[in-house]
Structures are given as structure tokens and as C-alpha cells.
Amino acid sequence: MTGTLQIIPAATLRAAATVVSHGGQYRLIAMFANDERLANGYFAIYAIFAGSREPAFKTIKATIKQDEPPEFPSLTPLMASAAWYEREIHDLFGLTPLGHPDLRPLVLHENWPQGVYPLRKDFTYDTPMPEGGSEYIVPPVQGEGVFEVPVGPIHAGIIEPGHFRFSQAGENIINLEAKLFFTHRGIEKAVEGLPFTMALYRAERICGACSVANTLAYVQAVEAMAGAEVPVKGQYLRVLAAELERLYNHVGDIGNLCAGLGFAPVVSHGSRLKEQLMRLNERLTGNRFLRGWVALGGVGMDITSVMVKDIQQTLAGLTKDFSGVLDLLRNNDSFLDRVNTTGILPYQAAVDLGVVGVAARASGIDSDVRRDFPYAAYQDFRFSVPVYTSCDVAARLWVRADEAAESAKIVSQVLDSLPSGKFKGDLPPVKPYSTAFSMTESPRGSSLHWLMAGESGKIYRYFVRSASYPNWPALTVAAPGNIIPDFPLVNKSFELCYACLDR
């Protein structure tokens, strides 16, 4: 994906961002730093904006020379969506966003030693670290009758760790503080110096549920730097893989959401239907998560007529069963009473936080990368983008249900119009220190992968902004006003991923 690039001194970043955002017509979709001292003699802050009314991107690159103070004016006072990005930049690069209202550590926890910045080039990923001893401050909520309820970081379910601290007055939640990034894997550091072909395996495993979306964003960024031409058949098969991934996620997520209120029949049906789709994935690719299908230059395998028939038969049966499951939900007043008006994320809050995907569309934001910034072969297919305005758990459920139906339609279109010919092309050499980024619409929302090439076809810098990254802060907005027993329901309706943060 391309757009305009503006290179400025870091001191003018806030003024430049004000102009580029143009009163909200361009929204901040990613912000990150890069240690370019070896290549260009400075640190760089990148802020990428996407048009909300037109399909265009604008990137600001703010530079901090080696002899300048390691600081830049914070964008958070202008746009709340910058808050986490700037805290992460401060943690990993030691660059201070002046005027940021909350510079508590985000990625690096209190056992990390101060003054050590792991994404600088003079830090090697295998450096042994002494134990740090700082304290993480949780702002208290004070008042008569207010008490705190800590949950996690170890949970009863088989999920990654995350700590939630609720402040309550009576039964109602009045504030939620979330502390995450407990199992950060350092993927962006570990791929430095790796060939593009080897780093693909790391990209593919950032998150199990979004393997195709992440891999596709990664390879498209590499292909953009190389100027590679992907065969049409390869593009069609990429769409097929992406929609099969969306289908099994949405079907399973609807069942999983019902676990938050103990609606066991739909939990079981959701698990059963998801299992059918994942077994289909394994029959097609040998992997339940569709790993290994998307490759640099196209896809790693074609599909046979037997596979086409298998997909069609599986989806025909699933569509009928899934419709019956949705009827169970739509006709159950007790269920509807729990999901309607629960966990509301207001439209303006979703806009301000840069929320993406299902959560955004359930709060009235009409956006979908597949339609707004078409990639692969999405421009060749007809599909609708469901948008709801009730902003609650119910809206997030119905968006998934509608999108699952649309995914089945896209899969049918792909199979009916699959072209012949090659499904994988060659990858030309990549010019050192060239850059590119790519976006895909994962089951949870848009994912952005940015790359800078190093010497000899290896990676200099890799940045990933998953769909869950801008959506996690939205949970702290949707939870207050509800009771703690409804929090699992609210949480599951966002279907947020810990692994996508711990990259």
C-alpha cells in the first residue's frame, strides 16, 4: 500500500499531525519508532494516517538526530489513539513523548531494568538482563463505598495472562484498569537480520486465529518492496484462505460469546461447527490454522476439484446448521435481555480510540479494509459490510453473524470464478533500506505490517499493529456501567487477543 510521505524534524510532529489529520478526515492507524542511526544517522517516528472519506494514506516521518534530545511532542493530547503507541515507543526506544498524560510502562514490566531499550540496534536480543525493581502504579478510585476487585493475571480458562482491576460502587463497575503484555515474545526484535523467507514463519505464528491475515499482510509488504507481481490465481486463493479463516473464527466466537452467560447449547453448537471448519482447513492444507498456504509471491499450493467439492459440501451443511443456531439466539428473550444494552462502546469513543473490525462496525463505523483499500482480489467480489449502531454486545454478535454469511458468499464466488494458470510468482531482489506496509482485514479487524529492508534481502525493522492493539483500550470504556458478572460477556464480545499484543 502506498501514499504520501512527509519527512519533518521531530519538534514539529504535533503541528504536522494536526494538518494531516484535517479535523479527523484522516485517522491515525499506526505509530511506531525505528532506530535508523546505522542507515540515516537518526531515530525516526512514523505516524500513518488513513482517509476516513477517501481511500488514501499519509505518512509522517519525524526524525531525531543523534545529537538531539531523545524526545518528541506527544500526539495523545490531539488524538487518544496515539496513547499506547507513544508509551510503547518510550518503553522500547527510550524516546520521550513530551506532554503525554500517562507514561507508565506498557510493554516492559517492573522487572525490566530502567534505561535499557530493546529495539535499539545496539541491543542484542540474547543480552542477559538483570532483575529490575520498579513499582507499577494503578491509579486508585476513591470515594465512600468504593472497593477494588483484582482479576488475574492467571485465569481459570486456558488463556494468556492479563490483569484486570475493577473499581466498584455496589455492583456497578465504575473503572477498569487493564495491565497486559505479560508474555511478550520480542518477535519484532528476533526477526532483525533474518531473510524474508525465514521471518515469514514468525509472522505466521504471531496469532493462531489470524495466521492467514498476518501472513498475508507480511508477504504483501515484502512484495511491495520487491515490486513482485502475484499471479491472479494466487490472489484468488489468498482470498479463499482469508475467508475460510474469517468463517471459522466468527462461528466459533459466537459460540464462545455465549459461554460468557452460560448458554450451553449454543456454546456446544459453536464448538461443533468451528471444528467442522477447522477439519476442512486440515484436509485442504494439512494444518487446522491454514498455515503454509500463503507464500511469498502467491500461495504454496493449488486446490483440486476434489477440494472444491469438499469446501462446497462443508459450507452447504454449515450454513444450514448455523442458521438454526442463530434462530436459537434471536428467539430467546433471556439471552437477548443479557446482550442488549450491555457493554456499550459509544460511536465517538470508538472513533477517538481508532477501534477497528467487528467492534468498530458494531459502534456505527462503516469501515472494512477489504472494501476500502482492496488487496489480493477483493475488488473482484461482491459483498456487504454490516454496520450496527446499538454499540453493545448484541451488535458485536450480529456483525459477526452477518459477516459469516458474507464470507460464505465470497468463498462461493471464488470457487465459481477461480482462474487457471500459475498460483505463485518470483520475488525480485529488494533494494536495501526500502520500506513498505500492508493492511489486511483479519477476523478481529485491520492488521498493519510495516517493513524496512536491510542488506542482502534481510529485515532491518519489522512493525506489527494487530487488530487487537487499538481495541484493547476500548474494553476499559465498554466495561464501566455494567456489573462484574457481565464482564466475561463484554470481554468475549470484543474477542481480544493477548498473543497479538505480545509480539
Automatic annotation (TrEMBL):
It is a peripheral membrane protein. Keywords: Iron, Magnesium, Metal-binding, NAD, Nickel, Oxidoreductase, Transport. This is Ni,Fe-hydrogenase III large subunit. GO terms for molecular function: NAD binding; NADH dehydrogenase (ubiquinone) activity; nickel cation binding; oxidoreductase activity, acting on NAD(P)H; quinone binding. Residues 262-427, 432-503 form the NADH-quinone oxidoreductase subunit D domain. PROSITE patterns: COMPLEX1_30K. Ni(2+) binds at C207, C210, C497. Its main location: membrane. It comes from Sporomusa malonica. It is found in: Cell membrane. Its cofactor is Ni(2+); Fe cation. It comes from the Bacteria. Residues 9-126 form the NADH:ubiquinone oxidoreductase 30kDa subunit domain. Mg(2+) binds at E188, V464. The keyword Metal-binding applies.
